[in-house]
Write a structure and sequence with these properties.
About 65% of the residues lie in helices and about 0% in strands. The chain has 6 helices and no strands. With about 120 residues, it is mostly helical. Helix 1 packs antiparallel against helix 2. Residues about 1-10 have low confidence and may be disordered.
Length: about 120
């Protein structure tokens, strides 16, 4: 198989450490997203019931920050080409029930930080 300079070979393996890091980051991102969504719903309900929301909004801010930072460790791996756009399939078993979620999110994440533009 010959690749042009703008093509990336499909990844066929990952080191166990990279795979663990990838799965750990996405599980943390997913958990933070679920928590942030729940807090957002709680805030909406609190406004409807005319209850205080400051504590909920502070918590939401914290979880949004955790959500945004969850995959920061993966950015250099995408930038260096160690993680390609096909990497999610290699972690399917380890991701378990969040595999579909990661499939939906990872491609855009990869496009944001891929320096190869392929």
């Amino acid at each position: 198989m010959t690749l042009s300079s703008t093509q990336t070979a499909p990844i066929t393996s990952m080191t166990p450490a990279t795979k663990r890091l990838f799965v750990k980051c996405w599980k943390a991102e997913y958990a933070a997203t679920v928590k942030a969504n729940k807090l957002s719903d709680d805030i909406d309900l609190a406004y409807i019931l005319e209850k205080p929301v400051a504590r909920l909004e502070n918590s939401l801010s914290t979880w949004n920050k955790k959500q945004n930072e969850a995959c920061d460790a993966l950015i250099p791996l995408v930038e260096s080409g160690e993680l390609t756009k096909d990497v999610v399939d290699l972690c399917r078993e380890e991701l378990g029930e969040i595999y579909g979620y990661v499939c939906d999110c990872y491609h855009d994440f990869w496009l944001d930080f891929n320096t190869d533009n392929s």
